[in-house]
Design goal:
heterodimer, A: Butyryl-CoA Dehydrogenase, subunit A, domain 3, 8 strands, B: alpha+beta, Butyryl-CoA Dehydrogenase, subunit A, domain 3, 10 strands, binds flavin-adenine dinucleotide
């Protein structure tokens, strides 16, 4: 296969938008909504903040106006995403709905549900979660066991999902449930995607504390949870056919390499305007690597905007990007090793490093591990 | 942005390389008889002087077209001074000097070398690692002084200390001792030694990206064909994961090199955007060359370690290109200092401006 990464440039309307987003974020920071220099402190979600973001028209940006969207380009959405990410803004409440769940609903939900739910996502009112992983099913999604049994007017769900980010603040889940056993010919057969109201009776959310000490993900237990027929998304037993272009969005966005970006900014602050040559060289390499990742990621966004499905290119961005953001705090730590003890921002650098280093392991696991991504790339190369 | 014409020029170049400089054939050749017809075809197609306008004796192609020629040359590991002649033609054009026929190279080719111009207009100094100097008829020289000059110099006027790069290609030290140029003209303000290094760096980045493209496709093809333990080695997950990494390095090189080339093509001057993009391209492509060469050799096993096999034509060249026009460590230190001078708060705005 031929890999393609055309030098896409963001069009001028993106720069106008970028100024608006920066001004908005500056106001929010000034008002004390969040502290951009202390990631990991304070809440990473904020209902009022998400509503204000929605009011600015920055959720569901690319969706049809009919559903509350704004019919803007994927490149404009790209700008909003990267500016929010770099500022460490508390977008957790609406981010999954905006990136993943909304596009899936747009494609597979019945019209009355789209008209009901999508505008509320756009207003920043709804938190969506992804219910795929189970205790016995992680990378191997098709081993999922949580069962949906056909009953009158709908389905009854029993089983346990795990690692479900934000389930404790969620309004809806897009869940993957077993509606039939796999067949001999196709082990991926038999799973169906559902929209689940998290307020339904029979759902219990149990917190799981992460090694950072934070509570982000959860166990979600289903006991005879009723889901109506019109909440089936797409083909019954055919969920495996449905994951296509959304995956490229999910994998190639700026959040796939900017998650620990703050330590790089803090390093530059600590080094001052005249760093020694060793530090300068270390910094320069990181800058070149970051610039490269961003240019790759923008290029994929451009391909998506043009209606292509750059599955392999998207997976490459996530593979390189997550490994980079994972290694970044360790590289920064090495470069900062000989800093003068009295460097002005030394304390905040150390505090940020401690947080970033603790967070780092998850970056190459969530949303598909390094090994799984490389399997997808290898398939694209014609090796599988 | 890719334009239609990129494809036409690049396809012409690819056709000539495939016909007259097939890496396999060149690798097996006992002598250099393939050289003359190749160079003649390149000259006739206007590829060697692509960046020189027709009024100055060239083909007047766009910057984008020229960079595509360079990437294509990388894909074929073309063993003649095509990229160097292109660069020399570009430099001469900056001062409106007509380009001669035949192979050229540029001096200096390392950011720490300086050629000076004396009050009498003669050139003095030493340029190391000048690629293909011993095969060049002329040098395009950027000389510094009270009035920086761009000069066309007859190669016979200089003293050469011959050397070779990793791939065995000429990389010679060129000494200028009161050399009188054939022609010279003031260098425009925007073209200084740094600008020449940036231009050379992006040329090397594009060649590296092209070479990596071929290394990737050779490696994938070999993995599908070579059998061990009764299966093609490409069926082993460890091999697949290595090749996926190679694809990642190739992708990174392609993306950053194309982005830098596009930036130079669109820029009016060697401004901050060009510096960030070009330095990044040189750094990241050199890193990709290091990683990519290692992975490819691992996939090929012993056969790839032989002179007879074509792999080294690509891997050794891309490893050698790391050292031309400033190696990745030198550029990283430059870029790091620049970013530090701008300060932490200006960092993201700079990255986001590209
Ligand atoms: C912070 C965080 C948030 C998450 N949020 C969510 C969420 O909101 N919703 C959700 O559904 N899930 C979520 N997950 C789960 C995530 O999707 C899974 O962790 C991931 O898919 C890997 O599954 P696993 O943890 O079971 O590991 P396993 O699949 O057991 O893998 C363990 C190791 O084996 C390797 N491995 C597995 N199979 C192969 C193979 N075929 N070839 C080579 N190596 C292999 C893996 O790469 C990994 O290194 C989250 C995870 C994290 C860390």
């Amino acid at each position: 296969m031929m890999l393609r990464f055309d030098p896409i440039r963001l069009p001028p309307e993106c720069e106008t938008l970028r100024r608006e987003v920066r001004a908005f974020l500056a106001e929010e920071i000034a008002a004390g909504t969040f502290d951009p220099h202390r990631p990991g402190h304070g809440d990473s979600h904020n209902r009022e903040f998400s509503r204000r973001v929605g009011a600015r028209g920055w959720i569901g940006m690319t969706w049809p106006k009919r559903y509350g969207g704004h019919e803007r380009s994927h490149l404009e959405r790209y700008v909003v995403t990267e500016e929010f990410r770099v500022a460490n803004a508390p977008v957790r409440l609406h981010f999954v709905a905006d990136r993943q769940s909304g596009p899936i609903l747009l494609k597979y939900a019945p019209e009355h549900i789209k008209l009901d739910i999508l505008p509320r996502i756009c207003r920043g009112e709804l938190c969506f979660v992804i219910g795929m992983s189970e205790p016995g099913s992680g990378s191997d999604l098709f081993a999922a066991k949580t069962k949906a049994t056909k009953v009158d007017g709908g389905w009854r769900i029993n089983g346990t999902k795990t690692w479900t980010s934000n389930a404790h603040i969620a309004d809806y889940m897009l869940g993957l449930f077993r509606t039939s056993p796999p067949t001999k010919e196709n082990r991926r057969h038999g799973l169906t995607q559902f929209l689940v109201d998290m307020k339904s009776p029979g759902i219990t959310v149990n917190p799981i504390i992460q090694m950072t000490g934070q509570h982000d993900f959860n166990e979600v237990v289903f006991e005879d949870v009723f889901v109506p027929d019109d909440h089936v998304l797409g083909e019954v037993d055919g969920a495996w056919k449905q994951a296509t272009s959304e995956l490229a969005y999910e994998r190639s966005g700026p959040e796939r390499f900017l998650e620990t970006f703050y330590v790089l900014v803090e390093l530059i602050r600590a080094l001052g305007t005249d760093p020694d040559r060793r530090s300068a060289e270390g910094l320069g390499r990181l800058v070149a690597q970051l610039h490269t990742l961003r240019r790759m990621s923008v290029s994929v966004a451009g391909m998506l905007q043009a209606g292509k499905e750059p599955v392999v290119e998207g997976s490459i961005v996530k593979d390189l990007g997550t490994l980079w953001e994972q290694k970044l705090p360790h590289r920064v730590r090495e470069i900062a090793a000989f800093l003068a003890p009295e460097a002005a921002n030394r304390t905040s650098l150390e505090e940020q490093l401690a947080f970033a280093i603790t967070v780092a392991p998850k970056l190459t696991i969530q949303g598909g591990t390094t090994e799984i991504l490389r399997g997808i790339i290898a398939r694209g190369l014609g090796l599988r | 942005m890719a334009r239609e014409s990129d494809h036409i020029v690049a396809e012409t170049a690819a056709r000539i390389f495939a016909d007259l400089a097939d890496p396999q054939t060149v690798n097996r050749a006992k002598d250099g008889t393939w050289r003359t017809p190749l160079w003649r075809a390149l000259a006739e197609a206007g590829l060697a002087l692509a960046w020189v306008p027709e009024s100055l004796g060239g083909a007047g192609a766009s910057m984008a077209d020229g960079f595509e020629i360079v990437r294509t040359a990388g894909r074929y590991a073309v063993p003649v001074p095509l990229a160097e002649t292109l660069a020399a033609g570009w430099l001469l054009t900056q001062a409106g000097i007509e380009a001669p026929a035949g192979a050229m190279s540029v001096a200096p080719a390392s950011p720490e070398d300086r050629i000076g111009v004396g009050p009498d207009g003669t050139l003095n100094g030493r340029a190391r690692r000048v690629p293909f100097a011993q095969e060049a008829g002329h040098f395009a020289v950027l000389a510094e002084g009270a009035q920086p000059l761009i000069a066309l110099v007859h190669a016979g006027q200089c003293r050469l200390d011959e050397g070779r790069n990793l791939a065995g290609e000429p990389a010679d030290a060129v000494s200028f001792d009161q050399v009188k140029p054939l022609k010279s003209a003031p260098a425009p303000a925007r073209v200084d030694t740094t600008a020449l290094m940036l231009m050379g760096s992006v040329i090397r980045a594009m060649q590296t990206a092209g070479a990596l493209e071929t290394v990737l496709s050779l490696s994938v093809a070999y993995a599908n064909e070579r059998v061990a333990f009764e299966r093609p080695i490409g069926k082993f997950q460890a091999v697949q994961q290595n090749l996926a990494r190679l694809a990642g390095e190739t992708a990174a090189a392609l993306a950053v090199a194309a982005s830098a080339a596009d930036t130079i093509a669109e820029a009016q001057a060697f401004d901050e955007a060009v510096r960030l993009e070009s330095a990044s391209a040189k750094i990241r492509c050199a890193e990709a060359a290091t990683e990519g060469a290692a992975i490819a050799h691992q996939v090929f096993g012993a056969i790839g370690f032989t002179r007879e096999h074509v792999l080294h034509r690509f891997t050794l060249r891309m490893l050698a290109w790391r050292d031309d026009f400033g190696n990745e460590s030198w550029w990283a230190a430059e870029l790091g200092r620049h970013i530090a001078r701008r300060g932490a708060d200006d960092f993201w705005p700079l990255v986001a401006s590209r």
